[in-house]
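Input record (one chain):
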Amino acid sequence: MYLKKNILIIGCGNIGFRHVQSLIKNNNINKIYIYDIDFCSYDIVRSKLKTYKNKINFIYNFNKIKIKNFFLVIFSNYAKGRYLSFKLIDQKFKVQYYLIEKIVENNLSAIEKFKKNKKIKFVNLPMRMMRPFKLINKIFSGQVIDCIYHGTKWNLLSNSLHYINFVSHITQSKIEEINIVKIGKPYKTKRPGQVDFFGKIFVKYSNGSTLFLNSVEKKITRKFDLINKNNSFRYYLDQNILKFNKKKLIIKREHISYLTNIFFKNLIKKKITLPLFNEHYLENKLFIKAINKRIINKKLIKNIT
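The corresponding structure, as predicted from the sequence alone:
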C-alpha cells in the first residue's frame, strides 16, 4: 500500500499534543518526532500516550536525528520567530509537506519570506472540515452573506483568522479589508507569556460579503450568525445547536485530536482539505497590518499567536 511516514512536530503544548494524539494510532505512520524548547512538555506526552512510546521520539538536538526525510512537519510553536524555525528545518531535512498553525507569522517581513518559499505549506484552519460548517457551506457556497460572531473572551486576535478564512472559503471571494474597529485592554491567555484583547473587527470581501467579530469581557452566549436574502444560520458553539431558518439541529464540531488524522489520511491520497499558505497569505498579511495599525505597544504584537 503506502510506505510508512515519518512526522515531525515542532512545539508540543496543548495544540501540539492534540496533533500527536490524533496521529499516533494511524498505521501509515512510522515514527512521530517531537521537539519543544520546554522539555517538561515531553512528560505529558509520556504519561498520556505511554502505550505508544515506541512510536514517539523526543528530540533534544536536531543534529542527532538520523533520518533526513519527513512526510509532514507540523509547526505548533508560537508565531513569533516561526519563519526562523521553518528555515532551520527546511535546510536540515527533506520535507514533503508542512502544516502551520495560524497565525503563520506575526512579522510582516517574515510573512513575505514564507510566500517566497515554494514548499507546499498548509495552514491549520480546519473549520471547513467540521460537520456544522460543511453544512453551512452547502447552503451558502458562492453567495453574498453577512456574518456576525459574538463571544466572551474568545481570544479575538488569536482566533479571528479561523472565521475570516472560513467566510472567504464559503463565499469564494478574497479579503478586501480588515478593520479593527475597537481594541480593548489586553489580558493574559492560557498560553504562558501570550496576550489577547477584547474588541471588534470588521471584514469586507470582494463579492460584498461582510464579517463582524466581537469579543467582550461580560458573559454572553457564543454564537455565529450567517444570513442572506434567502437563508439564515445561527450556530451556538457551546451548545452545539445549529438553527437553519426554522429548523434546529444538534451537531457537534470535531476536535483537532480527530481532524489532524483526517487531514493526514487525505494528504497521503493527495487530497487537499486545508488551505494552502498562498491562499491564506493575504488574510494573514492584512490581519497583521491591521493589528500594527491599532496596537500602540508593538511588543504586545509579538505575544499574539
